[in-house]
Design brief:
Length: 285
């Protein structure tokens, strides 16, 4: 390929390999290719089991709740839209829009994880399906739990990228303390996410068991008061950390980093569509 031809390719400031694909993107594609084989093996195992279920096994239609899973699937698809908007924003150098899109993607990712935690708890405590007492439980929890770990890793990555967007530029007085400042910022963000997840799941379970909404909400406030207070402090700290502090070292030069993260997130969403179809929908066809 000629030098002129190479110059016409927009690599977003990332060096190219001989394939014409940026190094970071090529590495991400290679990782996703290996992850395809990994998830392919897990999904195939579950489908083979469903074709030849053991006698006396659990009936999936009595276990699964397609309504909740359909909602979490919709939320995950919407997170892909927000991730695409984040990539578009940083390619145009719009850091503020990129941050809001990243935060929304993180929010949707946490909703998905919350739905999964609720579903798993329901299956174990109410439906009596665990990873060890049935083949359905073994294949289901292994497959969906592995995907949930991927989503959690993606949320962590998104959170770190959001915090990275506040790194002060050269000459900014905040540059000298940016490392400790950003570590505290990341800690507050992760704490806020975990506390929110804990509070929402507790609220759902308490309201579900309470005789009335008023009684359940009062019990929830009493039982989760400390966690609610800590969450308010964490969110207050996030607002403080996000205040304008001058020029930042985050712009369209970093587009390839956000793009690579976007590839991972879109892959996780696509895998879930396959899992949702193979594990849940096929049982109702």
């Amino acid at each position: 390929m000629s030098t002129a031809a190479v110059a016409t390719i927009d690599h977003h400031h990332d060096p190219s390999t001989s394939t014409g694909i940026p190094n970071k993107k090529l590495i991400m594609w290679a990782f996703l290719a290996s992850d395809c084989m990994f998830f392919g093996a897990l999904i195939s195992t579950h489908l083979i089991y469903r074709l030849h279920p053991p006698a006396g096994g659990l009936e999936p239609k009595n276990i699964f709740a397609p309504e909740l899973t359909s909602f979490s699937t919709f939320i995950l698809l919407m997170s892909s839209l927000m991730m695409a908007l984040a990539v578009t924003a940083i390619q145009k150098g719009n850091v503020k829009s990129c941050r809001w899109s990243l935060l929304t993607t993180i929010f949707f990712g946490m909703i998905f994880l919350g739905c999964q935690v609720y579903e798993f708890t329901e299956f174990v405590t109410v439906k009596n399906m665990t990873i060890s007492n049935s083949l359905l439980g073994t294949t289901f929890f292994t497959l969906t739990g592995t995907h949930g770990c991927h989503v959690a890793i993606g949320v962590l990555w998104l959170s770190l990228m959001y915090v990275r967007s506040f790194k002060p530029a050269a000459g900014n007085p905040w540059q000298k303390s940016w490392l400790s400042h950003n570590l505290l910022h990341a800690g507050c963000l992760i704490a806020a996410l975990l506390l929110s997840l804990k509070i929402v799941i507790s609220l759902v379970f308490i309201l579900k068991e309470a005789p009335s909404f008023g009684a359940g909400f009062s019990h929830f406030l009493g039982a989760e008061f400390i966690y609610i207070a800590l969450a308010i402090v964490a969110y207050g700290a996030l607002v403080w950390f996000a205040r304008p502090r001058g020029a930042v070292d985050f712009n369209e030069v970093n587009a390839i980093d956000v793009e690579s993260m976007g590839l991972y997130w879109h892959f996780v969403d696509i895998v879930w569509i396959v899992i949702f179809t193979a594990v849940y929908l096929l049982e109702y066809i």
